[in-house]
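Escalated from tier 1: zinc ion holo job.
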Amino acid sequence: MNWIFQKEGEINHYRERFHFGNQPIRVLHNMIVFIFQNTNPDFEKELSNTIAEKGISKQINIVYGDHRITKTPFIKFDDRAIYLEETFLSYLWCICHSIYTIYLQKIDFPKHNSYYGKEVYKIDDEILEKANELFRYAKFLIVDFETWDKEKLPNPEKYLAEYRDYIEQPNCFYTEANKFILCHEYIHAVKHIDEIVNNKLENSHYIEFEKEADFEAIELIKKGIFPNKINELPIQIGITLGILSMFFFKATTTGIKHPNTEDRLVSALNQLNLSADSECWGIALLGLELWGEQFNLNLTWNKQLNVKDAFEDMIKQIKENTNG
Ligand SMILES: [Zn+2]
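Tier 2 regenerated the structure:
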């Protein structure tokens, strides 16, 4: 475990015997399952009970394959197992890394530096450029597949210890984002599949199920916040990034069986009881701004307002400028 203290040079996590798949995200597959099983102190027990009672599959299935994202995470009705595409997982990590890094480099560090009147936190054009490049790569995976260049682009498998914070913090947000996704699917498995299978439901029913799955997932996760709150911010940032990752697929936020994506984001952030100056508001604002740029939606982050008010203002713009 020498890499933990390594300060310079290459870190390579890949071990052929443990890591399956071709994409560099493979080094975190075991971690997402472990983090999900330990969502809160009682969860492992709850999981084994419901697995026995409801016939939910124990297995979290990763669908391997070097192809574009064809499906976002889902649960199959017949075997009640959760499926995650490897390329989707790569996409999610890239979103976590790029939005977080762009946030640090463009928003957070400049703010602190101007407070101190000097460059306490290093602004690094190369780090920012690579984060932008990785953001472009993430969006590309929605339309087509291309190999993730481990030599040039940030990735969780192979990186320099000098830049480890830009990999290992996103790793943490990524596993938290996955925890939210898996808990959401788990709630569907426990509470909704029977109803869906046995009844012919109106679309409005599905929307209620989606809202309930988000809400209950966050409640499960909140039970896992330690009394000293040391893991609270990574959990909050992970959920924020997890929901933001749903935006970049299309220019609109409406769905027939899903609530509007911006409404899901608003509900989640409210449910997390964020402080008025939480980093999550800024991260959400940046993510929405990037989405606005992607589809020319004319969304602006009003920097005159405090972040919480600016977020509300941004949501209003989404409702007015798009079909949101
Ligand atoms: Zn759902």
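The two ends are 48 Å apart (CA to CA).
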